[in-house]
Amino acid sequence: MLTASQLTSLQAILPADRIHLDAETCERYGQDWTRYTTPRAAAIVFPMGIEEVQAVVRWANAQGVGIVPSGGRTGLSGGAVAAQGEVVVSLERMNRIDGFDPLARTVRCQAGVITAALQQFAADHGLYYPVDFASSGSSQIGGNIATNAGGIRVVRYGMTREWVAGLTAVSGSGEVLECNLGLAKNNAGYDFRHLFIGSEGTLGLVVEATMRLTDLPPATTVLLLALPRLADIMAVFHAFRSALTLQAFEFFSDLALTHVLAAQQATAPLAERQPFYVLLELETAVQSQEEAVLQVFSACLEQGWVCDGVIAQSQQQAKSLWRLREGISAAITPYTPYKNDISVVLSRLPQFVARLQGVLARDYPDFEVLWYGHIGDGNLHINVLKPASWALEDFRHACEQVNGQVFALVAEFAGSMSAEHGVGLLKRDYLGVTRSAEEIALMRGVKAVFDPNCIMNPGKLLA
Ligand code: 2HG
Ligand code: ZN
User: Where in this chain does the record put each FAD-binding PCMH-type domain (predicted)?
Assistant: First the structure.
């Protein structure tokens, strides 16, 4: 899809073996984990340094070609899909970790560093990188920053944003910007770092970052609790959080459990099935905290909020409980689920959930609807499974109809239409649920400053 002269000028920037035009590579790198858009990349390029990224961006501006920044492509909103003949800039060959500063407890990462590699680097130095999720073995730091990735420990450590001490970006106009210099304190004007975090590649490419590390977590206890009613979940949350420090507070429905058990060929963790389950990880460094776990657990049983539960007795058992939660998304991928990733403030969650249950039970009678997510953050992943007999477009259309009601509820409760997965292509038309027209107009203005020719990830986030 590139003209002969476009290709010739691109070949003057990068060696031929780092420009891929073949259909297989274009398909592989032209999409993320979503399966709702047909990839149509013109080329995939693999720069190996900041100057090469800058040269590609300048070339794209001169040629009027769109760029899709590409990390581990584990996104769920189509943010890394090349759907209209763009050049995909894969950062995967820029995967060096260096510049470890033990005093500042920071480390310098190129954008293509795999999340798990940073976690391992931290562990090797007696420290901890706490942002964690099921895709940490494939996702990359640059992508995590561009999407402000969240995951399973946000309730304790916050999102990726909290862990970026500085970043280097190549803006859409080809300028190299050093944002925040890794400083702990820096009030010298606007902090562009935070504009790039979560910008989904629409302002430029994050090429390097200085990431913060922290202390290793103390010993923890993992529990799985069974709940007859979702309405009681915040009471359980409050009871545990008042007594102990939460590392995670996740939930899933029985239908989600059914699918994950089938996919993993595992057996149910509790003798009796209940409609909902909570997976907690609690800090238990000292014996009094271990006792507190049992006390709160008993209190929840007495109240009738919880009717059964299991406390992991070994690391291995803790891992297998976690696999049930973390494996859900992969278990249902074959059903091309229609995904919602919504959030409200915790205090409004019980009322919101009650109303949402009503809407989904009434309007999705023919589809399997799975509930799971980071409920301790007020974040629900609602996944609707496509029946095999339905065509993808018809299914999507049917889901979008119901989604109008879901998003009306999100708006009524002043929630987010995308809590952690970003907006990308799939949620773009719903941005107005959470952001005002004035805000969206300002976003366009910001984009025009950093990316005047609109070459950066065109069509994502903003139409
Ligand atoms: C998770 O929390 C991921 O498991 C994926 O964010 C969520 O599949 C989803 O909807
Ligand atoms: Zn999630």
Answer: 37-216
